[in-house]
Design a protein that fits this description.
By secondary structure, the chain is of the alpha+beta class. The chain has 2 domains: 73 residues, 434 Repressor (Amino-terminal Domain) (Orthogonal Bundle), CATH 1.10.260; 93 residues, Sandwich (Jelly Rolls). The protein is built from 4 helices and 10 strands; from the N terminus they run ααααββββββββββ. The strands form 2 sheets. It has a 6-stranded antiparallel β-sheet with strand order 1-2-3-10-5-8, with no helix packed on it. Strands 4-9-6-7 form a 4-stranded antiparallel β-sheet, with no helix packed on it. A hairpin with a 4-residue loop joins β6 and β7. The radius of gyration is 16 Å and the shape is globular.
């Protein structure tokens, strides 16, 4: 299980437990980060500049000594121009308000599509912009959620759907209690 992030992007609190599962997960995700970074020919300095994360933080992540949050993984994926699912293996990832579980991933000639199950609590989750052209489609399953661009979020009830481009800051928040949803992300090729 991943740990919570402090208010500044990239600062992570120690995991609540350092059991073998948490350690194995950190090592697995860290290895993926290193592989994608080196495959892209990107050094730690360039990835640090592109993601807004410190070189020390990135090194600790790659070496499995730090558990990333959802925001941290999105920052890295965006800086490397890869979809979030390239960094995951189906585990739960936690953000300030959102817990996301990868359900599936499909590659097609013109786009890559990912589907996540989200649990959204009442605290706002501000997500930074993703790569150009990334489209998000969120369908609320239970509860009420406020989602979409930070400057114009939409309130949705169960069975309602909202589609928006994720090229700007965007927000997720449960309204009046937690909400669950399915999020589809489409990355153009």
């Amino acid at each position: 299980m991943f740990c919570k992030q402090n208010t500044r992007l990239g600062q992570v609190q120690p995991p609540p437990s350092s059991g073998p599962d948490a350690r194995a997960l950190a090592i697995s995700v860290g290895g993926r980060i290193r592989t994608l970074r080196t495959r892209a020919g990107v050094g730690l300095t360039a990835l640090s500049a592109g993601s807004g994360l410190g070189k020390g933080t990135l090194s600790e992540l790659e070496n499995g000594r730090r558990n990333p949050t959802l925001d941290t993984l999105f920052a890295i994926a965006t800086a490397l121009s890869v979809p979030l699912s390239d960094l995951l293996t189906g585990e739960e990832v936690h953000g300030d308000s959102v817990t996301a579980t990868l359900l599936g991933r499909w590659a097609e000639p013109d786009a890559l599509t990912e589907v996540y199950r989200l649990n959204i609590d009442e605290r706002p989750q501000l997500s930074k912009p993703h790569s150009p052209g990334v489209l998000e489609v969120l369908t609320v399953l239970t509860g009420v959620a406020e989602v979409g661009p930070a400057d114009a979020p939409v309130s949705l009830r169960a069975t309602e759907t909202h589609t928006f481009t994720a090229e700007t800051d965007h927000v997720y928040r449960g309204v009046g209690g937690p909400a669950t949803a399915v999020l589809t992300m489409r990355y153009p090729r």
